[in-house]
């Protein structure tokens, strides 16, 4: 680790804290899909979307420990988004009291992250997906060096990506993919051998932009 990496990590972490300490989050702006045709499609059928929550688990910046975000590689056996990079989370269930409870329960089930190890500091707006889900991202702080236990049915791998990279809007690029026989615009970011794209990239890019805009 060099001094520049440490400085960038520290700045990104405290920018994040400053943003959520100054934001009420009572009615956060929705997260839009990079392809506006998808946004239009989703607004026409909002009541049919299945509610889900994901957790953005961010390790605290400490001396010698750069802040990172915990991400997963979804199992190839899943029917929904197999093999993609994802934030831990999943569908709302009747036992969940709110969107926060959904994100924490699902994170424990998927990667073994105990709810008591997460300090929730805020939430982002909802994001509708063409796959039929309405996702609410929850932001939480965790200690570095926690041990995770991936659920083998859902998670193929767990990895960490630098917060300073993911919270830099310039790290992302627009590209396209074919979905339902139509070309759709998507966001993506490459970190080492991991291609972070789709909903995960859109959520993280949205957070990065919100933090960046709050500093101006």
How are the SSEs ordered, and which strands pair?
Blueprint: H1 3-22, H2 36-43, E1 50-59, E2 68-74, E3 85-86, E4 89-91, H3 99-111, E5 119-123, E6 127-128, E7 133-142, E8 155-162, H4 163-166, E9 173-179, E10 182-191, E11 194-197, H5 198-214
Parallel strand pairs: 1-7
Antiparallel strand pairs: 1-4, 2-3, 2-8, 5-7, 6-7, 9-10, 10-11
Structure explained in plain terms:
The structure is a single chain. The chain is an alpha+beta fold and 216 residues long. It has five helices and eleven strands, in the order H-H-E-E-E-E-H-E-E-E-E-H-E-E-E-H. The protein has one domain: Alpha-Beta Complex (Nucleoside Triphosphate Pyrophosphohydrolase), CATH 3.90.79.10. It has helices at 3-22, 36-43, 99-111, 163-166, 198-214, and strands at 50-59, 68-74, 85-86, 89-91, 119-123, 127-128, 133-142, 155-162, 173-179, 182-191, 194-197. Strands 1, 4, 5, 6 and 7 form a five-stranded mixed β-sheet that branches. It has a three-stranded antiparallel β-sheet with strand order 3-2-8. Strand 9 (173-179) and strand 10 form a beta hairpin. It is globular. The mean pLDDT is 89.
Main attributes?
216 residues; alpha+beta; Nucleoside Triphosphate Pyrophosphohydrolase; 5-stranded mixed sheet; 3-stranded antiparallel sheet; globular
How much helix is in the residues?
25-40%
Number of domains: 1
The CATH topology is what?
Answer: Nucleoside Triphosphate Pyrophosphohydrolase
Count of β-strands: 11
- Rg for CA atoms: 17 Å
- CATH second-level architecture: Alpha-Beta Complex
How is the biggest beta sheet arranged? Answer: 5 strands, mixed
Catalogue the unreliable spans: none
- What is the arithmetic mean of pLDDT? 89
Shape: globular
* Count of helix runs: 5
Strand content of the residues, in percent? 25-35%
Element-by-element helix/strand order: HHEEEEHEEEEHEEEH
Fourth-level CATH superfamily:
Nucleoside Triphosphate Pyrophosphohydrolase
> What is the end-to-end distance?
29 Å
The CATH class assignment is: Alpha Beta
